[in-house]
Structure formats: C-alpha cells, structure tokens
C-alpha cells in the first residue's frame, strides 16, 4: 500500500496574495474534487490560516471527503511557523490554534501532524503528544543521516546536488539535469518502507517523507525531459508502505517548475501505472525501526539555515523572540522567511511585529 498527502498553505512565500483565488481555482478545487470523485483516499494538510480563508463550498467538499472516509485531516502549525525556531509556549500556541480551527471548521480533531518544512527537534513530539497527536510526518533523508548529530563536525551533503544546480539554472543546466537524474534515482533507492518510532522526549510514531520520491513523482507526472509516469513507476515499484506524494498541492495545476506544470491527471496516470492500493497515511504499516532524529528540516542539507542565516530572517527571528507572548501568529509565518520570499510576504511579518509591539493584535 502507498499513501498521498497534500500540503496547502495560502501564505506561500512565492505566491502573490492577489493570486490566492486563482490558486484555489486551479489547484485546490480540481485536486480535492477529482480524488474524491475517483474514491482515492488521501491526507489533507491545510494550515489553520488557509482553512480560515477558504470559500465555504470548498470547506463543504472537504467535509464530504471526511465523512466518506476518503480524507484524513492532518494538523500543522496555524501560520506555517518553523517550530524549532519558536519559544516552547509559541510552539504550543501554534499547534493549539491550528487544531481549534480544524475542530471548528471541519468538525474533526486531527491525530497526525505535519511539521512545517519538516523542521523537527526532539521536544516537539512531547508537545504534540500533550495535545492529543499520535503521529507526525518527518524527513526520511534526515533519518538516514541522524547517526551523527553534530553538523558542525560532519555537514550533510545534498543527495542530488546536480539536480539542485539545474533547478537554479547554474552551469550547464542540461548536463546537471542528466547527472541529477542519476543521483535522484540512487536517492530513491535509499528510501525504506513503513513508519518508524522516534526516540524523543516522548516517543512518537513518524511517517517518513522522502524528498527524492516526491521529486521523482513530480518530474514524472510533469513530463520533464526523459521522465514520465511509466518511468517513475519503474523507479518506485518496489517501494511499498511509503508516501508517493507528500508536498504542496499548489504544484498540481497552479505552480510550475522550470516551465513544466503538473496536474492531478498526471498523478492519476502514475497510480494507474503502479496499479497500487492507495490508503490513508495513518494506515501505513510500521517498519519495526526505532531511531533518534536529529534537529533538522527537509532542506537539501537538512539544516534550518534557510530560515536563520539571511539577515532579514535573523532580524525577524530575533524580534519574534523579543515579543514573546504578545506576538501575533502572522509574525511567525515561515513563508516570510521562505526559500525565495516575495517582499509582500516578508513585509507581512514585519508589519505584524510592529503592530504587536504597538499593542495591537498583529493581524494584517
């Protein structure tokens, strides 16, 4: 069996706010409606903030999927905050606010938790367990590299550096792409099946999210050069009890990668090629593995540097900590500190901090 999870965040760093209605029309509606109509079960991880601004007819469609047993609602942080960068009281506030929204709008209490950017530290499972969560999603590749805990002594190297270079348009792009495909196929082969138990402040079950598998699926269903659903199916045919897709819903119908746009139709083609049973994420079997997961994320080097090292990010993080309990949720939004954030997204966080500092509620 295999599973699907779709992550939705309408505070997406690279999407203009004016485009939100188009994102909902081009990605959210067709993906959710198609999978429900085809009776394909899936996990749905929408931030509480996203749920708060979705149109009511889409909320009704999601509730229909929940009632029919096709949708497993997954919790996350309310404004997609990077939890290891927050004080513990703010970690819990983000978790609780998101859960409250889902209980109110969807009338369901999620049991699985999606770590934003899969950013993790060993105390987060304890806070999740304290708030009724039973399992989480974590980066599978970070699990492979957790045998050494000090990245200052032994940095983690990306598994497919040439593909990353090709995506960034660096060097001889096509050559980097070809080399990257070889690296990617090897990385897919490293993925193991099933859930694991994480040794943490409080033990918790975790479903590995394999970035290499996600990437291969995206390249295949997007018909990138030398890639298609049939080829990807061959790459992953022996990978049972895994997530086939565990990333942004916006990539299916709205947002392209290097000019190639994926669709739910392409995903259906892959499922047909695999001839596999799709199940809800929580139903995936346990691998029998028990391990320690280092503080990490699903960035290529598994670190938190993307959200900390830039001067603007460092300033936002420092100001967020200084405000502590008075801080508004919107100042903690990770997409103000994202991979390549738009100025308006970054400004939203600075505005929220300013309003909170002046004694307002920090909403914008």
TrEMBL record:
Protein name: Polysaccharide deacetylase family protein
Domain Glycoside hydrolase family 57 N-terminal stretches: 17-284
Keyword set, alphabetical order: Carbohydrate metabolism
Coiled-coil stretches noted in the UniProt entry, renumbered to this chain: none
Native species: Pyrococcus kukulkanii
Entries under InterPro entries matching the protein: Branching_enz_MT3115-like, Glyco_hydro/deAcase_b/a-brl, Glyco_hydro_57_N
Metal-binding is among the record's keywords: no
UniProt KW Protein transport keyword: no
Family: Belongs to the glycosyl hydrolase 57 family.
């Amino acid at each position: 069996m295999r599973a699907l999870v779709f992550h939705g965040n309408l505070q997406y760093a690279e999407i203009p706010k004016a485009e939100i209605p188009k994102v909902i029309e081009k990605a959210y509606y067709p993906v959710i409606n198609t999978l429900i109509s085809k009776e394909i079960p899936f996990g749905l991880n929408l931030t509480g903030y996203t749920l708060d601004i979705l149109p009511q007819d889409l909320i009704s469609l999601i509730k229909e999927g929940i009632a029919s047993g096709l949708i497993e609602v997954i919790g996350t942080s309310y404004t997609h905050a990077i939890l290891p960068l927050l004080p513990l009281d703010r970690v819990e506030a983000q978790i609780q606010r998101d859960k409250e929204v889902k209980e109110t709008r969807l009338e369901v209490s999620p049991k699985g938790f999606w770590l934003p950017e899969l950013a993790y530290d060993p105390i987060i499972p304890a806070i999740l367990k304290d708030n009724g969560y039973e399992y989480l999603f974590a980066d599978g590749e970070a699990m492979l590299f957790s045998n050494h805990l000090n990245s200052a002594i032994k940095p983690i190297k990306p598994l497919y550096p040439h593909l990353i270079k090709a995506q960034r348009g660096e060097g001889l792009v096509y050559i980097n792409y070809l080399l990257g495909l070889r690296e990617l196929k090897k990385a897919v082969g490293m993925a193991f099946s099933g859930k694991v138990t994480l040794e943490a402040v409080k033990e918790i079950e975790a479903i590995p999210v394999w970035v290499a598998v996600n990437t291969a699926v995206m390249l295949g269903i997007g018909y990138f050069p030398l890639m298609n659903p049939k080829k990807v199916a061959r790459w992953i045919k022996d990978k049972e009890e895994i997530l086939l897709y565990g990333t942004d819903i916006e990539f299916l119908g709205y947002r392209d990668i290097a000019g190639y746009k994926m669709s739910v139709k392409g995903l259906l083609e892959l499922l047909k090629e695999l001839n596999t049973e799709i199940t809800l994420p929580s139903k995936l079997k346990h691998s029998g593995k028990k391990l320690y997961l280092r503080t990490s994320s699903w960035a290529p080097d598994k670190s938190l540097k993307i959200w900390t090292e830039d001067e603007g990010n460092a300033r936002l993080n420092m100001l967020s900590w200084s405000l502590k309990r008075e801080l508004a949720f919107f100042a903690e939004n990770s997409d103000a500190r994202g991979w390549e954030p738009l100025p308006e997204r970054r400004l939203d966080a600075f505005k929220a901090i300013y309003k909170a500092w002046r004694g307002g509620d920090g909403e914008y």
